[in-house]
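Forwarding the complex inputs:
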Amino acid sequence: MVVPDLSVNIAGLHFKNPVTTASGTFGYGDEFADFMDIGKLGGIFVKAVTGKNRDGNAYPRMAETASGMLNSVGLQNKGVDHFCREIYPRIRDFHTQIIVNVSGSTIEEYVAVAEQINELEKIHAIELNISCPNVKQGGMAFGTIPSMATEVTAEVRKVYKKVLMVKLSPNVTSITDLAKAVVDGGADVVTLINTLLGMAIDSEHRRPFLSTITGGLSGPAIKPVALRMVWQVHKAVNVPIIGLGGIMNATDAIEFILAGASAIQVGTANFIDPTISVKIIDGIETYLNRHKVQSVNSLIGALRTE
Amino acid sequence: MHFTKQVQDLRVVSNTRLNPRHFVLELLAPEKLPVILPGQFTQVLVEDSPSTFLRRPFSIHSVDISKNTLRLLIQIKGHGTMHLSRLKEGDSLNLIYPLGNTFSLPKTRDVLLVGGGCGVAPLLLLAQFLNQNNVHPTILVGFRTKEEVSEIEEYSKYGRVLLTTDDGTAGEKGLVVDHSIFQKELLSYKKIYCCGPDAMMKAVAKIARMHRVDCEVSLENTMACGFGVCLCCITPTDKGNERVCVEGPVFNINRLKW
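Prediction (whole assembly, two chains):
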């Protein structure tokens, strides 16, 4: 049997396979070095980087819910200078695509971070995070108002010369309006979905479980919403899509690819099985063999709706 | 010797019910056990329990290198732990381990261990470790009532054991911090290691500060991953928000914002 081709091309970037890991669920990659060979992955989206150090939100930041979890981490990170100086040198030689998730509270902050990341030789793409539900200012606001989404994308586009991905929020009335807005602003790729805004209550103590009261829902609970949005965006725009939301296994990943994703991100599942991303790569290969499909590319958006 | 974290299926050798709320699982590793230090923990996958989505963290209670086994002391709290309580000999259990930092080696022999309820879990391994380093600690353990008092013979192998129960049915009556050992004008201990509910650890920390006794506590914050990437289990320290699963679970009280 011919070994199927798992590689995908996304906006000119080569990914050895469509399996990547979602920002905020994979650290900077090296935390997983004990568990797996990072070089097997198509890519890794590293933890969000902001202009300055952020302490994030107060504890408690997490609540387990039915088939998922809520988090309100709040973009805790040590800032872009620290990333370039301390983190980048230790991850730059991973044999995989490294994409930096860029976050901020103001357009100026997004632009400043993107400008600095643009200088890093081994980083060929950024993922603009205009969809974090857990920061008071900015964050999700840029991702819910189309004109603001276009503006922040366009401003970053002026300074960022490589592949520009924009991560969309599902907390909107029309996901296609937002996708079109960021493509108008110059996005090369759209990533979706970020977490769904949710809430959990401890009835015994009459208190919210999270310090921030509301937080972002992830895990299998959100997969049907994510699939629907990937499908809608696939029909609405002409840029590649990276899909995520509750992917726990290879079957889930295939579903996103059929809905129109050129690649997928594994997120919350990394917490439960740190080796899951490698298992998903193997599972996709098995699926291709079983269905006698030569290349994963022929599955992208190949949902039969007739 | 290797310190690599691993994801591994271990086999249940025994499941011993200590009392209605607590049980001990003894687990056999498929390969030679990695080095496990006192204070370290494991993330346990609870399968076939739909409401238990994430793994559950448990302190490593003890290690038997000759049998290549480790033991977990678990309190039944919800569906996940209820499910684990029903495991039988021969069943398989998936663990990520060993995780987290460790209690430090004391620079003194005057050592007091204080554990409350299920918080006694890491103190047995710590007591074993101290003995190997020729330290014989005093071990103060607190339980709710006589029926829950367990494993005293185990602790007694490693040092003098003191006991409290909330209702006074065994040992001194009250919480561990009410024990007469803390009432003495000058506390004769130079190092305290403590694990239990937050309120109890804070009370012990207060006494330790008052008597200028060095004190380490083992925290138990809710966590998603257990190996440092989700940033959910943080606690404020002198270095900002630190991860209980990596920089902890053991912290010197001087570093905490207590």
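Chain B touches chain A through 30 residues (CB under 8 Å).
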